[in-house]
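Record now logged underneath.
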Amino acid sequence: MIQIPDKNTNMFIDIRTSLFAIYLFLIGDSSALSNWPYTENPSIAVLIVLFSLLVVVYLMNLLIGLLNIAIEEDNNRVSYLMQKAEILAEIELFYLLPNQRRWQTWFPEVIHYYADVDKTRVEIKRLIKEGEWDTKEFIEMRKNLFKVLQIEHNPVDNEVVLEKLKSHDEKLDKLEELERLLKEIRAK
């Protein structure tokens, strides 16, 4: 009547089958532990409860961490505005009739934009400091913006440009030194 445990009845005899039993227990199949009555072995019942709780808490924390990373990457204002612009462009191209696209009330010639003066001044100074402001676009608008925001900027005297020129001078000096060494080697 009583069967002696073997590999078929006790999955915890071999390390490979015990790992498989743990995997089965993770997906909800507790048949590997059905050979032992829980009333006679309360330690098994305690271990099952602890395993269930700890695995659930660990997996939920792992999921929350992964979602948090994904949300941080996508939760910025720029990506929101880019996606909004793409959706509006798609609506304008595919869902509006040609006569609707010509309506001046929907698509005006000039769009007015409000910007806070202090934030604009800080951002322009940051762009100048990082060397991203000096381009050849909208020169008159830039001059007017400097006047209104009371920012003094001489593009010729920009520190970033001077630093770049110094680094280029150092590279030129190194190239001249290399050319001199090559001439000496060729002369020998």
Summary: The chain has a mean pLDDT of 81.
